[in-house]
């Protein structure tokens, strides 16, 4: 970049209230204030018609355009004569989708549909959520990220790479929508349990935001997927001729944090205080720091730390119906002490402390964590990362999961390590010998990273396990009884949680909102579900569940004084339902 350009790009960032150039009220894009040498984006809005209308995924209806619409919008001749309703389009597409055996092919077909006809895509997703969730989300989305370079067709979100350093605000302005409510951002360093996938991690923000709309009701145009590309340490990708990202090792330290700081500032400048930034699949060594750093200045939420925590806490609370006792009566053992492990552990401790009025430090004592070096104990405290230190309890060192289970005798083992097949037959058998109903949570994603399968958990515990996993498993018949595994995945929480924040115009996230979301989810599990061994409600009702979560979260935001949309609606559940995006076609004048 030459020095003149640099000057300009710095100038564009200088839109502080102290700038000497005047600006109109709510001149959030700096267009009024800009001087001649400052850069702005020349926006135009056009009415779509004819061929362009068919190519516009937001408004395209394909063969569902009525005769009148075809007349008025210059579509005659551009479509075959048949006019078919959306329901028939849906039926036809589901039939063709079911014809594909390979899940990745289904993924590609669905993404193409999203690119072609957005409302039809969401109609399919909402009406067939249980069938399509494993395609647009874990496990298939993991494979899609691994092969993203080969299946890439069109960008579905914003790529912000180190090449754009100093110009991130301009890059944000290249996105065609201005009224963004939710951003999901990754830097691709820890995609599910698959590790560093660099720029190809984009599949995750795209998938998460599809669920924001389908499960939570946030309108698609208000969602923005972002991948921050600071390089990758994945040698295989660096050598892959089809890799779509920067071919360099990851930037770290000051360079990384300065870049993220520019991003966070640009986001606030461009979209204001109320845009939600959801951090997704960052590596542990950055995730905690980013959340702590921006939690006090921005509306940020880390799905892997906080979303997973709220979901798992809900499942634990629900499981008490099957296990008996209260949270404070049980011992929990985590295998994996990263974002998910410590995030869940901390929220359990907070929930116990609120209930028993004991200090959080006291509540932590029945919660044990194992990392790659073994049980986290006091003797290791000096060398532990900050997020692990609160979990160092007094115990002799143990560096094997089986021995740890024997020593700690937990009611639940919760796998959050990203390493598959670690809950062995011996581990489950010991859990079953200690507990009448051992709670086994194999949370790592995608399926191959699961600590054990549902079938293994039921078989090895002779049908007594209460089982939940991060990625879906089919029901298992054991001893003539059908066991229905639960899917303890953060997608139960984040869509409703984010929707609640947006609804209330919240400007900060608070732990009490996580507890509120968790309670709302647990309250949706019924006796019928318990009877089948389930500790989460089925996904079929997810929009209703999301409305309850959103309402509880919004209520908490109002109570805490961080809601800006006033006055508070009288019935928040009804209000949430009434605000949700619906995918049926609209009629065009
Ligand atoms: O994406 C999912 O399925 C859950 C999640 O956040 C992760 O595993 O990182
Ligand atoms: Mg994640």
From TrEMBL:
Organism: Solanum tuberosum (Potato)
Residue ranges of every copy of the Malic enzyme NAD-binding domain listed in the record: 305-558
Role played: The chloroplastic ME isoform decarboxylates malate shuttled from neighboring mesophyll cells. The CO(2) released is then refixed by ribulose-bisphosphate carboxylase. This pathway eliminates the photorespiratory loss of CO(2) that occurs in most plants.
Keyword Oxidoreductase: yes
Cofactor note: Divalent metal cations. Prefers magnesium or manganese.
This protein's name: Malic enzyme
Domain Malic enzyme N-terminal: 114-295
PROSITE patterns: MALIC_ENZYMES
Keywords: Metal-binding, NAD, NADP, Oxidoreductase
Cofactor: Mn(2+); Mg(2+)
Residues holding a divalent metal cation: 280-281, 304
NCBIfam families to which the protein is assigned, alphabetical: PRK13529.1
PANTHER family in UniProt: MALIC ENZYME, MALIC ENZYME-RELATED
Compositional bias ranges of the Basic and acidic residues kind: 1-11
Residues holding (S)-malate: 190, 445, 489
């Amino acid at each position: 970049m030459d020095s003149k350009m640099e000057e300009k790009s710095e100038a564009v960032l200088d839109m502080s209230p102290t700038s000497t150039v005047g600006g109109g009220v709510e001149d959030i894009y700096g267009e009024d204030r800009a001087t001649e040498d400052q850069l702005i984006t020349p926006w135009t809005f056009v009415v779509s018609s004819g061929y362009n209308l068919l190519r516009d995924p937001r408004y395209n209806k394909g063969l569902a355009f009525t005769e009148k619409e075809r007349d008025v919008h210059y579509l005659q001749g551009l479509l075959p004569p048949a006019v078919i309703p959306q329901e028939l389009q849906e039926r036809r597409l589901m039939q063709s989708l079911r014809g594909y055996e390979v899940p990745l092919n289904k993924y590609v077909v669905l993404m193409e549909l999203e690119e072609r006809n957005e409302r039809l895509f969401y109609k399919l997703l909402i009406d067939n959520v249980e069938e399509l969730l494993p395609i647009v989300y874990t496990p298939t989305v993991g494979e899609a990220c691994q092969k993203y370079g080969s299946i890439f067709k069109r960008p579905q979100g914003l790529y912000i790479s180190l090449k754009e350093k100093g110009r991130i605000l301009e890059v944000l302005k290249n996105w065609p929508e201005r009224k963004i409510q939710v951003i999901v951002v990754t830097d691709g360093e820890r995609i599910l349990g698959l590790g560093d996938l660099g720029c190809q991690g984009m599949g995750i923000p795209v998938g998460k935001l599809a669920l924001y709309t389908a499960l939570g009701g946030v309108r698609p145009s208000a969602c923005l997927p972002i991948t921050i590309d600071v390089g990758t340490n994945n040698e295989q990708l660096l050598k892959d001729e089809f890799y779509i990202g920067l071919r360099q090792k990851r930037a770290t330290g000051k360079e990384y944090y300065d870049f993220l700081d520019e991003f966070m500032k640009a986001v606030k400048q461009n979209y204001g205080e109320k845009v939600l930034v959801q951090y997704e699949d960052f590596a542990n060594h950055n995730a905690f720091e980013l959340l702590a750093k921006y939690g006090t200045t921005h509306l940020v939420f880390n799905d892997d730390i906080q979303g997973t925590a709220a979901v798992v806490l809900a499942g634990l609370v629900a499981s008490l119906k099957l296990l008996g006792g209260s949270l404070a009566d049980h011992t929990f053992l985590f295998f994996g002490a990263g974002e998910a492990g410590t995030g869940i552990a901390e929220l359990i401790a907070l929930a116990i402390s609120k209930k028993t009025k004991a200090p959080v430090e006291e509540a932590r004592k029945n919660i044990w964590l194992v990392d790659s070096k073994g049980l986290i104990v006091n003797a290791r405290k000096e060398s532990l990362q900050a997020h692990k230190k609160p979990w160092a309890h007094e115990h002799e060192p143990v560096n094997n999961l089986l021995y740890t289970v024997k020593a700690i005798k937990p009611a639940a083992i919760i796998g959050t390590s990203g390493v598959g097949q670690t809950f062995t037959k011996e581990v489950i058998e010991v859990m079953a010998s200690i507990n009448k109903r051992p709670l086994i949570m194999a949370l790592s994603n995608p399926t191959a990273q699961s600590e054990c399968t549902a079938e293994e958990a039921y078989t090895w515990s002779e049908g007594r396990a209460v089982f939940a996993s991060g990625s879906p498993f089919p029901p298992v018949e054991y001893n003539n009884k059908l066991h229905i595994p639960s899917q303890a995945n953060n997608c139960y929480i984040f869509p409703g949680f984010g929707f609640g924040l947006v609804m209330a115009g919240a400007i900060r996230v608070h732990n009490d909102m996580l507890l509120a979301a968790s309670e709302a989810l647990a309250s949706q599990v019924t006796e019928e579900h318990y009877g089948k061994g389930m500790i989460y409600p089925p996904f079929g009702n997810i929009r209703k569940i999301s409305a309850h979560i959103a309402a509880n979260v919004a209520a908490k935001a109002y109570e805490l004084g961080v809601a800006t949309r006033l006055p508070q609606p009288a019935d928040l559940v009804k209000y949430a339902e009434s605000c949700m995006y619906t995918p049926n076609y609209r009629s065009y004048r």
